[in-house]
Amino acid sequence: MSNDFETNCQDADTLLKRFRSATLPHFINGKADPGRSGKTFDSLTPVDNSIIGEVAAGNGDDIDAACQAAEAAFAGWKALPGKERKALMHKVADGIVARARDIALVESYDSGQAIRFMSKAAIRGAANFRFFGDLAETARDGQSLPADEHINYTLRQPIGPVGVITPWNTPFMLSTWKIAPALAAGCTVVHKPAEWSPYTAMMLSEIAHEAGLPDGVLNCVQGMGEDAGKTLTEHPAIKAIAFVGETTTGSHIMRQGAATLKRVHFELGGKNPVIVFEDADLDRALDAVVFMIYSLNGERCTSSSRLLIQESIRDEFNEKLAARVRNLKVGHPLDPATEVGPLVHDRHFQKVCSYFDIATKDGAKIAAGGKAAPIDGKGNYVQPTLFVGARNDMRVAQQEIFGPVLTSISFKDEAEAINIANDIEYGLAGYVWTNDLSRGHRMAHAIDAGMIWVNSENNRHLPAPFGGMKSSGIGRDGGDYSFEFYMETKNICVALGTHRVPQLGNS
Ligand code: NAD
Prior knowledge:
Layout: H1 3-21, E1 26-28, E2 31-33, E3 40-44, E4 51-56, H2 60-79, H3 82-98, H4 100-111, H5 115-134, E5 144-146, E6 150-158, E7 162-165, H6 171-185, E8 189-192, H7 199-210, E9 218-220, H8 225-234, E10 240-244, H9 247-256, E11 263-267, E12 273-276, H10 282-294, E13 306-310, H11 314-326, H12 346-362, E14 365-368, E15 385-388, H13 395-398, E16 405-411, H14 414-422, E17 426-427, E18 429-433, H15 437-446, E19 451-454, E20 469-470, E21 473-474, H16 479-486, E22 487-495
Parallel strand pairs: 7-8, 7-10, 8-9, 10-11, 12-13, 12-18, 13-16, 15-16, 18-19
Antiparallel strand pairs: 1-2, 3-4, 5-6, 6-22, 11-21, 14-15, 17-20
Helix pairs in contact: 1-4, 2-8, 3-5, 3-7, 4-5, 5-6, 6-16, 10-11
This protein binds nicotinamide-adenine-dinucleotide (NAD).
């Protein structure tokens, strides 16, 4: 065990003591809240599936308390000058930076994501608060639309209290990606984090409270999706739901929110193609292909889980790829050397492992991995896996596996690559590797996905739109796109005093 690994384990253990010794509460109206039902659920670590601690299982009454708090806080938060919201959000960012290591250690141990990635994810959470905080002053800005005898102008106002429902993959960073723009817009928030990764949401609530966020502006209710999550989507005080998670859950939420006409923003599943042409810089392409599926345990919505490789370079590229995959370091998430950690939960681990059989049954070949890889007989570890010789109609090509598992499919030419890329229910992201500039653009235009990277891995720019087409989502996040969701646009029409007002009953 390296010194750094040992220190990480000791520090994580110290941080987790509080979660081991007392039930993790909700955070409602500026206070830790034990919940109204007394019910709890166990939170496990994927390292060995042992219990970290108990978590309050929120129900409709807890959600109601949180929604009432968010509703009561809304008028004050909305009225606070943008400059002051901005200052508070920077204080939250400072608090995140000060606790970034703690957040990373807890998140790694709780979710199984390797510490090398989680340290950056915590810092990205702070960056989200700073970026959207800086926009708080201008979020309400609108357009001037003069007509002949009237002046129209628009402004934006926060939509009201919103619900934010997040998944377990990079949970801290993802929740800040939703919560920060909502707060900058002037909305108050009820956050329902994923039941498989509950801890860092509580840390965020505490940091925000310590930074001086008024009571009720950010509330957090722990619990199951079918209970706490569902009642949040149905609550009349909540005007919009920002949801990140599975496609099927998105449909449930749309149904659940129908009676109260919820505005919804969905970031859902993906089965994203990375298309490598023979003329690409193949060394860089190889690095990106490996990074974009095996980093973050492959539990990443924008992972490039389908490799489309041109036939002329298929065998050589797949061979090099398989060698790299076999060389990936699977290990304890707190070990700085680890590249692939354990999968978040035993249920998810079983799902990912089931695809090893499915792949061979459907006729694909396993070129690397293909087995569970427990450490000392424990934990949700799997061998990073590469399927080759696959066809796009196979289940390993069509279904979101959400693990360190890549399916390689070959294509002859550009037209076939486009057909394969688009023959899927999802449309989140696409990656193209080619040194032919025109082809890069042609492919980017032709792929049905919300985000395309040409000669790059997923490289995020906060003002740029993020989101998917087809079953991968509804709406876009990022910069001003986020405010379109969290705010209402109002048009104000003022007469210049010269136009003729129609007269009735005056004859
Ligand atoms: P999930 O849909 O099972 O759960 C997500 C959240 O929804 C959890 O908090 C859960 O408790 C809650 N939930 C479940 N049922 C609910 C219901 N009926 N009503 C309200 N809330 C409910 O997803 P997951 O397994 O936690 O996350 C993995 C999925 O998230 C993958 O499909 C992945 O692609 C997707 N994801 C998408 C993006 C994106 O930007 N498109 C980003 C990250 C993850």
